[in-house]
Design goal:
- Chain B: It comes from Mucilaginibacter aquariorum.
- Chain B: This is Tetratricopeptide repeat protein.
- Chain B: Keywords: Signal, TPR repeat.
- The structure holds 2 protein chains of 2 kinds.
- Chain A is built from 4 helices and 9 strands, in the order αβαβαββαβββββ.
- By secondary structure, chain A is an alpha+beta fold.
- Chain A has 2 domains: about 1-35; about 40-180, no CATH class.
- Chain A is globular.
- By secondary structure, chain B is an all-alpha fold.
- Among the domains of chain B are: about 25-95, Serine Threonine Protein Phosphatase 5, Tetratricopeptide repeat; about 190-273, Serine Threonine Protein Phosphatase 5, Tetratricopeptide repeat (Alpha Horseshoe).
- In chain B, α10 runs parallel beside α12 (about 210-225).
- The longest helix of chain B has 19 residues, at about 1-20.
- The radius of gyration of chain B is 22 Å and the shape is elongated.
- The chains are: A alpha+beta, B mainly alpha.
- At the A-B interface, α3, β3, β8 and β9 of A face α3, α4 and α5 of B.
């Protein structure tokens, strides 16, 4: 093998090793059983001044419950959420290859206001993926436009809760919405 | 009778202890994983303390199914389906018994009918047609298989699973609380309105005050042109929905064939026009 060939071979091999290293690191980072520091509760969302509203008020002492424990709901239920999201969703041909799940998690405070939106994107095989940024922005804006939340309640006292909306996408169209 | 009751009551602590008896495992890895699992579930689900103990349990035995499953649950309930799936895939790889939970949750939380059915069919084959029950106990998993087929548009295949499960359970008087309701709605989708009415009437015998059943009965009678009966059933549905509060509802997710008050009211409005 000539010197140039060896250099080229080394460069290719080196790149391959680097690639494998990056992949192995990312796979390792994705294994939750290797986590060394968990949040106080799975799914906790910490305030991020870059994305979250500073004037979004939490009513409690910082502990945020889950929607299913306190029956946080939406006026008209999931049916109304589905109607709002599907009727306002604007499909673009650029979205035609999007098949998978987009989950948007957020806080519904005791006044029924929402903030701290976080987005999870998965392909149809449940692998992490990054979809078109305008598509994600559009879905997030749609979720933010839902404004008829009924806060979670316990013993006639309203509380802050986490909620999520999971959108099953098939070829860029919303097929299912849970919960 | 009293003696039997006494024996059962006296045996109860032993039965409970048997659940926690990790010393039944012969190898140290499983024994340790089991002990850490029981410590983990003493804490609130999804709490740091609980998740850390599951991690320790899985360090002791990376294939310990109960820890993989239980650690996955808060991710599922809180919309982190990546981590839920990773953990449940490991649980299933370790022991196909976990197909029941993965299959049921793929249906309930993710509406992934194809993969849910694949999981439950695999379990059905392994267990010779008896895949067991959903995690919440509401359904025999053959009913979930039927609902998966229905959601994929295979109504006749759906009906076959409904019939197999219900026929089997009628012999044992174990028919599920909502089985006739879903069967009736499926027949309604097949435009077999008389058959649907027969099933829905069976549901009213099983669960007399369930508002949802009367809504679907109303729809069937409407399709058959029997408006008076349709109106009576929609009215009954509204009455039950608003006064008794017995209607399909679940704290986590919208349930199959769930009816909203607005659905009933929309139908009633059509009679006034």
């Amino acid at each position: 093998m000539k010197l140039a060939g060896i250099k080229h071979h080394f460069k290719k091999t080196g790149n391959l090793i680097l690639f494998l290293l990056v992949v192995s690191i990312s796979i390792k980072a994705q294994d939750v059983t290797k986590t060394t520091k968990f949040p106080q509760q799975v799914g906790d969302i910490t305030f991020d001044p870059k994305t979250d509203r500073a004037n979004f008020e939490l009513c409690g002492n910082g502990f945020i419950n889950q929607y299913y424990g306190l029956k946080t709901t939406y006026q008209g239920g999931t049916k109304a959420i589905k109607k709002h999201l599907t009727s306002n969703y604007k499909y673009k041909t650029a979205y035609k290859n999007i098949t998978g799940y987009v989950t948007i998690r957020f806080v519904v405070n005791c006044k029924g206001q929402t903030d701290r939106f976080r987005v999870f994107q998965l392909d149809e095989n449940y692998q992490k993926v990054k979809y078109d940024i305008s598509f994600i922005s559009h879905l997030t804006a749609l979720c933010k436009s839902l404004n008829k939340w009924i806060p979670g309640k316990y013993n006639n006292q309203v509380y802050d809760t986490y909620y999520y909306l999971n959108l099953k996408m098939v070829k860029g169209q919303i097929k299912e919405i849970t919960p | 009778m009293k003696q039997i009751l006494l024996i059962v009551l006296c045996s109860l602590p032993c039965l409970i202890m048997a659940q926690t008896n990790c010393s039944l495992f012969k190898d140290e890895a499983h024994k340790s994983a089991c002990e850490l699992y029981w410590k983990a579930i003493e804490y609130n689900q999804g709490s740091r303390e609980s998740q850390e103990l599951f991690v320790q349990s899985l360090k002791a035995c990376p294939t310990y199914g109960p820890s993989l499953h239980e650690m996955s649950v808060p991710y599922l309930k809180r919309g982190d389906f990546f981590n839920w799936k990773q953990l449940m895939d490991r649980a299933v790889a370790a022991d196909p018994i976990w197909l029941s939970d993965r299959g049921w949750c793929l249906f309930k939380f993710l509406r992934d009918y194809k993969n849910s059915f694949a999981d439950l069919k695999r379990l059905y084959d392994i267990n010779k047609g008896q895949p067991g029950y959903s995690g919440d106990g509401d359904y025999n998993l053959r009913i979930i298989m039927a609902l998966n087929q229905r959601a994929m548009g295979n109504l006749k295949a759906s009906l076959a699973y409904f019939n197999e499960c219900i026929t089997d359970h009628e012999k044992k008087e174990w028919v599920g609380l909502f089985d006739y309701l879903h069967l009736g709605v499926t027949r309604m989708m097949l435009k077999d309105y008389k058959g649907a009415i027969a099933d829905l009437n069976r549901e009213t015998k099983k669960y007399e005050k369930l508002a949802d059943t009367y809504y679907y009965l109303g729809l069937c009678y409407k399709k058959l042109g029997q408006d008076q009966k349709a109106y009576t059933n929609f009215t009954q549905a509204k009455e039950l929905f608003t006064k008794t509060g017995y209607y399909r509802n679940d704290p986590y997710c919208e349930v199959p064939d769930q009816v909203y008050l607005s659905d009933i009211e929309d139908e009633l409005k059509k009679f006034k026009n």
